[in-house]
Design goal:
This protein is mainly alpha-helical and 976 residues long. The chain contains 34 helices and four strands. It has helices at residues 4-7, 29-55, 60-66, 78-84, 87-97, 103-128, 137-140, 145-157, 191-195, 201-216, 219-254, 263-296, 318-324, 332-340, 350-371, 379-411, 419-436, 453-476, 483-512, 519-529, 536-540, 547-555, 560-577, 601-628, 638-665, 671-695, 723-748, 766-799, 804-815, 824-859, 866-881, 886-889, 896-922, 925-955; strands spanning 135-136, 164-168, 176-180, 185-190. The protein has a four-stranded mixed sheet with strand order 1-2-4-3, sandwiched between helices. Strand 3 (176-180) and strand 4 form a beta hairpin. The longest helix has 36 residues, at 219-254.
Length: 976
């Protein structure tokens, strides 16, 4: 039965669809329950960090000032650029003046929430079953007739455990509820239901069977576990976090400022609202399942309540849909539709998909926030934080897409593309990214808001790919159940989504918030990576230079090659497992036979093999072209090495695009998975050609590029060619080529309405088909094996936190030192923070070394023996040798003039101490006097820096330095 609006739809002309068992591939709600249970503990530490950090007696802002950060700088990326080049000093400063809360203070909150949830889980059933509210059934049914009837229903349902039955006499509704747990369920009958039992026995039977269905479907434990975790999270974490933020707003208003809503509040709300909406959506879905289970147990359909007739279309209005989001039970008309046709259980609701995307991104953000204060954010940490939300997306959205495809195949209905649900998934990720505050700074609108469309586009592609793979597997799989194929598809989807989430959080969010690299920094980075004697202007003049960091970003994600490979391997495996056509064994008899519209495997493989050969030919031509302009051996880095990389990627990408277009043209609605298979096979064959050519470079005559001497070496040891990273970039370009090729074919040639004819399974010799399947299986194994090995190497390298000084030097080389005009008052605050937080100690030591050196020089005589000089000056030389480290372990002085004096002090101290030790060892008086002059100059530069700092601080009314300046020291500066 349906409502009036449904009856007015022109659906009478459609042929009746066969009824489908709603249990095909499972419900998927268990995975969504797990998503909610994961989100709340993951959010505990992240939200409480926002409370614990301000409570600590720390001064992180002063450390930022000491690093040279201007709090009023409108560019949010200037501060990270200043800090990352001095990361070692900043970490030391924060550890001393603004230490993070102890790790156990963060880890204890998820434990408290879980313990509190466990207590609530056991207390809630006791509270619901308290004697002041309910009475045992025996108190109302002393003869046991009602209990006997219910026991018969329990036997019909096949339940192993009989529920405890109680009655709520005060409940006048004609319903019932089940609570407790799956092992100890309690069935509570409302007094209104008992009142209508004799007048309407069909309703009584239906309601009881519905509640027993919840027990059979194991809904009780999951439902009350979610309720318990949510309430514990609400009381222990969410409410305290929001109260703290409210207190911060109160303090701002009391101080005369305006109330401000910060990111922590929005992140808390972003955590709470999806939990509520997703929880209610799951509960509504479980009601449908319980209805259908009861119907399968021969419940009378007349026992369900009927919808009240209203104006046409009133039941489907926007207000009803909006109010339905906040209900735990679906509308009566929707339940009646599901009883007539379970198609509603196979839909992919846009709200569910949107919430899954937002929740998955929020989980990743919370997991990263939990560990952010405790060490360097390595790629391994980003990957570990991306895997749980990726698994949740695969288990939630992925299974829902496969269920929709299975329903369409079983009923003979057309299969939707899956792009729209995927776009909603990406929209949820974009919304979570925007609300949680992408990047540094406090900007609300990102610098490049159009990049928020990138997750939407990626989600649409992933959704379309997953749906078409499910459609392909459903028609080729010959097993008795579709679950092994489902597991294969969801494994590939999880890896693809995880690699995407890592890239988005590492690089996509940075580009979204306006991050960009200066061309000079990129040129310095290229020159350092590919050493050359050629002038730097050659690199700056190279077209496409600014694409290098973007491509390197793809190369830096360990799973990106495996994810891209699986986008081709999953559909290729579907083609390889069996020829399409006929009725698959997993389909029940009596339903429609799927049409034989899947293109044969050879139609996919042949263009890929041809274009793979074309890629190898293009590689040869590109090497011949590069050889004509080959520079001398010491100049083959820089722009020449980068041109080699660019031409190699072009030689792989263009044939991949041609293969994708050729295959998509003849693949019908399977054009996207077919194009991905063709593009990835072309890329793999071309990559094999690259491996061979780079290995024997130097033995190829006019095809030599980097080497002149003949020899065979592993390609990953070639210093000026990023062989391993090239696979990541080439794999991503292969996916982009397949997507572009599919879009071109779809735009230029609309999808055929009639299926293309394909060969029957017996049209080819069995040996040829078997050989083709073995070849496809070998390609799958090679693609997965190579990409997994490369990903493992990258993960091992990138997950190791680099040494702080090396990382800071690389960042400074790439970003440069931001040169900003700072207001005078801010400059005083920066120098004061630099001196007060740690610079005073270094300055005091250097000035004391200068005083000791002056005393030693005053006591020295021309007639002193070398032994006497050794005893007097050797310890001083050793002390001055340690001065150079002050410039490394502490910040650069924020003031340019003071910084120049400080740098001259460190440079002269390092040079003078080294020459002093050498002169004492050689007993060279001339060299010894020159070394002492250098040390005296270092002392003068330290005194000059001290005088400048003292004057700057006293000029602003602050206490000066600990050493009052004397005289007018002169510092001879040195070049940096």
């Amino acid at each position: 039965m349906g409502d009036v609006g449904a009856e007015q739809r022109p659906r009478a002309a459609e042929p009746p669809r066969p009824r489908v068992d709603e249990r095909v591939l499972g419900a998927g709600t268990g995975a969504r329950f797990a998503m909610l249970l994961l989100l709340m503990p993951a959010a505990c530490g992240s939200l409480m960090l926002a409370v614990l950090t301000p409570l600590a007696d720390g001064d992180r802002a002063a450390c930022e000032l000491a690093a040279g950060v201007d709090p009023a700088d409108p560019d949010p990326w200037t501060a990270p650029a200043m800090i990352v080049g001095q990361q070692h000093a900043f970490d030391f400063c924060v550890s001393r003046w603004a230490p993070s809360p102890p790790w156990w203070q963060v880890a204890v909150w998820p434990v408290l929430v879980l313990v509190g949830a466990a207590v609530l889980f056991h207390v809630l059933p006791l509270w619901k079953a308290r004697r002041s509210r309910v009475v045992p059934l025996e108190a109302i049914d002393p003869g046991g007739r009602l209990r006997t009837g219910i026991d018969l229903l329990v036997t019909e349902a096949g339940l192993r455990r009989k529920p405890r039955i109680v009655v709520d006499p005060a409940a006048v509704t004609g319903g019932a509820v089940v609570f407790g747990s799956d092992r100890r369920p309690v069935l509570c009958l409302h007094g209104g239901l008992l009142a209508v039992r004799r007048a309407d026995p069909a309703r009584f039977r239906t309601v009881v069977l519905h509640e027993l269905a919840h027990i059979a479907n194991r809904d009780v434990t999951l439902t009350y576990a979610t309720v318990s975790v949510w309430r514990a999270f609400l009381l222990l974490v969410l409410v305290p976090a929001l109260l703290w933020e409210g207190f911060q707003v109160y303090q701002d208003v009391s101080a005369g400022g305006g109330p401000s809503l910060d990111r922590d509040v929005l992140l808390a709300l972003l955590t709470a609202v999806p939990v509520h909406l997703a929880r209610w959506e799951i509960l509504r879905s479980r009601e449908f399942w319980a209805d259908l289970t009861a119907l399968r147990w021969a419940a009378d359909p007349r026992g369900w309540p009927t919808a009240v007739a209203g104006p046409a279309g009133a039941g489907r209005g926007p207000l009803r849909r909006l109010s339905g989001l906040w209900r735990t039970h679906p509308h009566v008309s929707l339940r009646q539709e599901a009883l007539a046709d379970p198609e509603a259980l196979f839909r992919v609701p846009a709200l569910m998909v949107f919430l899954t995307g937002a929740t998955a991104c929020t989980v990743q953000i919370h997991l990263l926030n939990n560990v952010a204060p405790y060490g360097t954010a390595t790629t391994g940490r980003y990957l570990a934080a991306a895997l749980p939300p990726a698994l949740l997306i695969a288990a939630g959205v992925g299974i829902a897409l496969w269920r929709a495809v299975a329903y369409a195949v079983l009923t003979g209905a057309p299969v939707a593309s899956g792009a729209v649900p995927g776009a909603w998934l990406g929209a949820g990720m974009s919304a979570a990214t925007l609300v949680s505050g992408p990047g540094p700074g406090t900007q609300w609108i990102p610098e490049r808001p159009w990049l928020l469309l990138v997750p939407v586009a990626v989600g649409a592609v992933v959704g379309a790919w997953s749906t078409r793979c499910a459609d392909l597997w459903a028609r080729t799989w010959r097993g008795r159940t579709l679950r092994p194929a489902l597991l294969t598809g969801q494994t590939g989807l999880a890896v693809v989504v995880a690699s995407w989430l890592v890239w988005w959080q590492l690089y996509g969010v940075a580009y979204l918030t306006g991050f960009s690299l200066p061309a000079e920094g990129v040129a310095r980075w290229v020159t350092a990576r590919y050493p050359t004697t050629a002038p730097p202007e050659d690199v700056l003049a190279l077209p496409g230079l600014m694409l290098t960091p973007v491509l390197d970003g793809f190369a830096a994600v360990p799973l990106v090659a495996l994810g891209a490979a699986l986008m081709g391997v999953v559909p290729l495996a579907a083609w390889a497992v069996g020829p399409p056509g006929g009725r698959p064994r997993w389909m029940p008899a009596g339903g429609p036979v799927p049409p034989a519209d899947v293109p044969p495997l050879r139609r996919v493989m042949l263009p890929a093999l041809v274009c793979g050969a074309l890629a190898c030919l293009a590689l040869l031509l590109s090497r011949a072209y590069l050889h004509d302009g080959q520079p001398p051996p010491d100049a083959r880095g820089g722009s020449y090495a980068l041109r080699h990389v660019f031409w190699t990627l072009t030689a792989l990408a263009v044939p991949s695009l041609l293969a994708a277009v050729a295959v998509a043209t003849a693949a019908g609605r399977f054009r996207l998975p077919a194009a991905l298979v063709a593009a990835q096979i072309t890329t793999l064959l071309g990559y094999a050609g690259v491996t061979v050519l780079v290995s024997v470079d130097g033995c190829l005559g006019f095809l030599n590029v980097l080497a002149d001497r003949c020899g065979v070496q592993p390609p990953w040891r070639v210093a000026r060619f990023p062989h391993l990273l090239l696979l990541n970039v080439a794999s991503v370009l292969g996916v982009l080529a397949a997507v572009v090729g599919t879009a071109l074919v779809a735009a230029l040639s609309p999808l055929q309405t009639s299926p293309k004819p394909t060969l029957r399974p017996g049209a080819e010799p069995v040996t040829r088909v078997a050989l083709r399947r073995r070849g496809a299986a070998a390609l799958c194994a090679v693609a997965v094996g190579v990409s997994t090995a490369v990903g493992g190497v990258h993960l091992r390298v990138l997950s190791a936190a680099p040494e702080s000084q090396v990382a800071a030097a690389r960042a400074t080389q790439l970003l440069g030192v931001p040169g900003r005009t700072v207001p005078a008052a801010t400059r005083v605050n920066q120098v004061d923070a630099w001196y007060r937080l740690g610079g005073d100690g270094g300055l005091h030591l250097v000035i004391s070394y200068g005083g000791r050196l002056a005393t030693a020089l005053g006591e020295a005589k021309d007639t002193d023996s070398w032994d006497s000089l050794e005893r007097r000056f050797r310890p001083l030389c050793r002390d001055w040798a340690r001065v150079g480290v002050f410039e490394v372990v502490w910040f650069r002085v924020p003031d340019p003039d003071i910084g120049a004096d400080w740098h001259a002090m460190a440079a002269r101290a390092e040079d003078g101490s080294r020459r002093c030790a050498q002169a004492l060892d050689a007993r060279d008086r001339t060299a010894f006097l020159a070394a002492l002059r250098q040390l005296v100059g270092a002392g003068n530069c330290a005194a000059k820096a001290n005088a400048r700092i003292d004057a700057l601080l006293r000029g602003d009314g602050r206490p000066g330095t600990a050493h009052r300046p004397g005289g007018n020291p002169v510092c001879v500066r040195v070049a940096r």
